[in-house]
């Protein structure tokens, strides 16, 4: 039900609610969702199964770069977005968030889950 309702966007007027229901209303969100969490899952897959995958140093380098780029993103798609709640996206702490993202990017370069350590 929620997925269907989130395709409807509109405005409240003096005459009532004017809404348009279309998959285009959330298409950018779903593209971002697939890109972010697809890279995340791929990274975790490489992190947990490097021996099984027989990862080459070149492939591992690419995964590491994707992991760092992902950790530096300003915003990962939320399960419930600010826009859906008619709220503004918080902007007051951008400087702190930028520093935090940089620290996370360096920490997550070797892995999101295992932090570069092998499973025992």
Descriptive notes:
The chain has 120 residues and is mostly helical. Helix content is 49%, strand content 10%. It has five helices and two strands; from the N terminus they run H-E-E-H-H-H-H. Strand 1 and strand 2 form a beta hairpin.
Radius of gyration: 19 Å
Q: Output mean pLDDT.
A: 81
Low-confidence stretches: none
In spatial order, strands of the major sheet run 1-2
Contiguous helical run count: 5
Number of β-strand runs: 2
Summarize the entry for a quick read:
The chain has 120 residues and is mainly alpha-helical. The chain is built from five helices and two strands.
Key structural traits:
49% helix, 2 strands, mainly alpha, 120 residues, membrane, 10% strand
């Amino acid at each position: 039900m929620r997925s269907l309702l989130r395709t409807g966007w509109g405005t409240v007027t003096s005459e009532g609610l004017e809404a348009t229901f279309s998959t285009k209303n959330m298409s950018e969100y779903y593209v971002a969702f697939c890109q972010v969490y697809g890279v995340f899952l791929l990274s975790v897959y490489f992190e947990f199964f490097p021996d099984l995958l027989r990862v080459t140093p070149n492939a591992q380098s690419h995964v590491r770069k994707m992991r760092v780029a992902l950790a530096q993103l300003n915003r990962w798609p939320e399960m419930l977005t600010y826009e859906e709640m008619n709220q503004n996206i918080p902007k007051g702490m951008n400087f702190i968030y930028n520093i935090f993202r940089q620290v996370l990017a360096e920490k997550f370069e070797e892995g999101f889950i295992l932090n570069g350590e092998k499973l025992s």
